[in-house]
Please model this.
Amino acid sequence: MGLVPTMGYLHAGHASLVARAAAECDTVLTTVFVNPLQFAAGEDLATYPRDPEGDALTVEAAGGTMMFLPSDVEMYPAGRDQVFTTVAVSELSARWEGATRPEHFAGVCTVVAKLFNLVGECRAYFGEKDFQQLAIIDRMVSDLSFPVDVVGCPIVREPDGLAMSSRNVRLSSDERAVAPVLYRALQAGAAAIRSGTADAAAAHQIMMKEVASEPSVSVDYLEVVNAATLEPVSKVSGPVRLIGAVTLGAVRLLDNLPTHPLETQ
Model:
């Protein structure tokens, strides 16, 4: 069984997960559920884009076998405010997205754990765009002995480099033209590291300078981290992950890029 958990409004990135699962598994179940537990008050739960009919066409075209589109009541019979049992991965959730959205990852882990319990033994496919989420789910599976093989899949990008996301549809035309600056910043940081910059602070300054070229973009974080622990590094001596989150208008954009010094290739 291949499992592809999503929040719907599927795009080519999601389709790549379904296609990967279809190539490796006998049966592929795609779930579509906009999980209220991972949205804090004032976040975009009510306006999160939804298109179940389009999602079904996307899944079918990508080779998916089945879909599961539960209601809130099916997943949380007593209501979201009456969910007393949650799952949290403490250390990996503390920084980055967890610092900005403290309720988010407990909501993600709780709903994913419920899906794993419903499905049972499977291979579960997640995109690397939400890299911290991928690391957290992988650790949850290990710590709680779920019979699940977590498979991370590469980011799918628009031709200009913007990482595909369901929230991109909320960008205005002017904002959409600006949005690839985050990817350019990560590329600039990665290029510096590959060319011999070992000082993570110097790489950080290069990334910040690139984003500063677009004054409408507000930086939440741009960091060089250990890919396993998600902790920031001061000196780059091996493979690392560059991670970033920025806000553009009403939309929060996430992206990341792996890199390493040339001598570690």
The CA atoms of residues 109 and 220 lie 23 Å apart. Residues 104-119 form the longest helix (16 residues). The longest strand covers residues 217-225. The chain has a mean pLDDT of 95.
